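Why show two proteins at once? Because comparison is the fastest way to build intuition. When a single record is shown, students tend to memorize it. When two are placed side by side, the eye starts asking what differs. So, the first record is below.
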Amino acid sequence: MSFYDKFETLCKEKGVTPTGAAREMGITQQAVSLWKKRGSTPKYTTLKKVADYFGVEIDALVVVPDGDRLVDSTLKAIFTSLHHEQSQKDSDIKKAPSEMSEDAKKLNEILMNLTPEQLKLVLERAEGFAELNKKIKKED
């Protein structure tokens, strides 16, 4: 089942048209057409909007029918999108992926191959390290 098929099903359940739902979320009709015609999956920020609008988890929009793993291409698209957005927002990160350090490349490779459950654990631990780092910096 494609992302658009899931989107359309959620629209029917909510009693809205795909066009109406997209308009309410600030998503262009062109984007919806790409989902439908090309079977594409939107970037992470749009997935988040759609998930919030329908009150579902992002996994519900992109998980294969057996529910075990994200579709590889979708996961890669999400990480590519996140990497691109972070690179644009963070003034300290101005290197293209080909210029990333070996450690950054290794981390990127690892993240691209995680299951959703493993990814959640990694993110939780990273958030814990970030909080600990903030506390340490406040003490200095």
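Second record. Ask yourself what differs from the first in the token line.
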Amino acid sequence: MRFKREPLSLSSLTLNPATTTSLGGVIVGSGLDVQPDGLLSVNLDSVDGGTVRSVNGLQGEVELDASDIPGSVLTINSQPPDPSGNIDIGAYTLPVAGPTTLGGVRVPGPSLVVDGAGNLNLGFTPVTSVNSRSGDVVIEGLIDPVELWENADLDTITNPGLYYAPTDQVAESLTNGPPNIKAGSLEVIRFASGSFIQRWSQASGAVYERSIQGGSTSVWVTIGGAASIPLASDVEPGLVMVGSGLDIDPSGTLSTTFKTVNGQGPDAVGNVNITAESINAVPSSQVGVPGGAAGYLDAWIDDPDDPTPEPGPDEMLYRFGRLPEGQLPLGALVYYGEWDADANSAETADYLIELQDGGLFQLVDATDPGTAVPFVAPANGKLFRVSVAGSTSLDGLSDWQLGDLVVAIGDRWYKINNPVPTTMTEIEVTVGSTESLTVPPGIDPIGCQLIVRVKDEVTDDWYDISPDVASIVYSTTGVELTNEHSADLTFRYRFVR
């Protein structure tokens, strides 16, 4: 049956929606166009975001393989891909890894293991600390002791650890080692303060120890093996036996004991009080005073090699005592030295002297004669020997010959003639080692007095010789003078009968 709608009909037509299997009404959506006459067409430009029109130039139901994709893999190991782009190359072998090349490695085991997930791990529990120390821990000498070499100096062995001398020969060659050292081991212990202890042990049981601190090294002390301790000496510690005059208590403390000194016993605390009377000595308060005892005046023989005014160590070897002039008995004469009767001059270590009438002499400080003020004093008891003949007038006397004596007694000068005058003057000679002295005719050197003086090359002063300066040997043929110094010295000498 057929229906027809007339133009003037008021009835409405409702279409069922179209489906994939039945006709029906549709609404034009995006991507479609409908013409006024109802013609429906595709309009891809109206699709939001655009549409794919072709794939690599292919349209419709497109199926792609590797050849349709530019830049895809053509071959692997000369094997081309199949239409799906797959290449079957079989098993793949990695290259061996190197320091600069990635590659395959083998797990040696049991040090390294690989778990099921491919994780590589250590096959053991590692050490994480040594004596509570971690990181780069250094072990010094605790294992495998160091063998000492011949002539090693133990003062320089300060690294902590163990050392050993394998033979007696090596041990005995070591320097700064303990006494009676034999083959043994050395242990060096260091403390936080920087000090050390060295301990030497020997098979005999002898053990020695010493400390090193701040560059100072103590002596070796025996701490074991008493049988090997040597006897003590004045330079080495060792065993001693307690003898008379010494006491030792149970704690091992050694002390001295005195019974008596000159018959005087100790007091309650062990002191012995000695008085001058108990040893028949003169009390110091009575020395050098009227009615007391004469004292001694210190003096020394001067050493020309020692320019200092105080006595040196060599000069003190010849030190001797003399009675002070003021403590001589009345009427005693004091020899003051040599007098030049031509220049009227004498000289001592302290003064330059000029004799004057009336038993006087004038003295000038010899240390500063240019500015010192001369002073005149009585010369009573002073005696001079004429060293140079002259005609100086003293209290009416003017004939002075070599060897004469001039002495002040009271308030005038007196002359004592030389009983056997000699005209020989001083002879000056420079001696390097040994020199034969010239003996004047008619002189028996053994029966004469030989006076020798030496020149101080620094001050140009002349001094009597001492045994450390020169020695003199007499013989029947002459006299020899030997210079005891390494350098040449100048001497003056003369014979006096």
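One difference worth noting in the second protein: The two ends are 200 Å apart (CA to CA).
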